[in-house]
Amino acid sequence: MTKPMTIDFISDVSCPWCVIGLGGLEEALARVGDLVDAKITLQPFELNPDMPPEGQNIGEHVFEKYGATPEQSAANREQIRARAAEVGFTIATTPESRIYNTFDAHRLLHWAGLEGRQLPLKHALFEAYFTRGENPGDHEVLVAAAERAGLDPAAARAVLASNRFADHIRSLERQWYEAGISSVPAAIINEKYLILGGQPADTFERALRTIAAEA
After folding, report:
1. Cβ of 45: how many Cβ atoms within 10 Å?
2. Within a domain: residue 23?
3. What tens digit of pLDDT does each residue of 132-144 get?
4. Domain that holds residue 181
């Protein structure tokens, strides 16, 4: 018997572990097949809400925020690149890559959810940033991603040119922060079960099967 599930996937566009976690979750859902009928809602989280429009060099940012040396950053990038490849995604960041503001990307993702194209847009934005090195705060980049995700580019441009959903996104971010979410990705299943981090498909699959059995 198919079990309905709600999955809130809290993440940021510029979070590489979110790429890995979402890939693992989607692979797990493919494995469990008809056992689960999942409704995934992408929820906003900004790792760097105060990042200026021009962004910051990734090495400088990681050193300032985490104290990581260039050697440690390079090792982390290799680990992330390998894990992303396991879910079929290419991460091509370099020491010259930059971190950008993602607030408008989250506004556009919310709109895409209303249009039924949230996951395709998320994947398009991940590819734009991590594979092609584009700025996910740039409206032209966002409009192009929307079009690749099957959305109306003119409608996407109109959303970005306005202030639509800004208050709602801030409210959601505050809601998750007050609920105790301080790092991403975080997947909350049926508003009850929390899975933190960029987990592999095996971890998600075990959780989905266990929760389905309990339901």
Report:
1. 25
2. yes
3. 999 999 999 999 9
4. 3-53+101-214
Question: What total of structural domains would you count in the chain?
Answer: 1
60 assigned to some structural domain: no
Res 145 pLDDT > 80: yes
And the tokens for 59?
Answer: 């090495």
The alpha helices in the chain, defined as continuous H runs, are 16-32, 58-66, 70-86, 103-114, 118-126, 139-148, 153-161, 166-178, 201-214
- From residue 155, alpha-carbon distances to 112, 120, 126 in Å are 10, 16, 21
In the predicted model, is pLDDT for residue 126 greater than 90?
yes
Residue 189's H or E segment, with its range, is strand 186-189
14 is a domain residue: yes
* CATH at 110: 3.40.30.10
What does the pLDDT look like over 80-123, one tens digit per residue? 999 999 999 999 999 999 999 999 999 999 999 999 999 999 99
| Structure tokens belonging to residue 195 | 């899975």
The answer as to whether 93 is a domain residue is no
**pLDDT beyond 80 at 215:** no
Q: Please tell me the distance from the alpha carbon of residue 138 to that of residue 53, in angstroms, as a whole number.
A: 8
DSSP letter, residue 56: E
The CA–CA distances, whole Å, from 2 to 5, 24, 187 equal 10, 21, 20
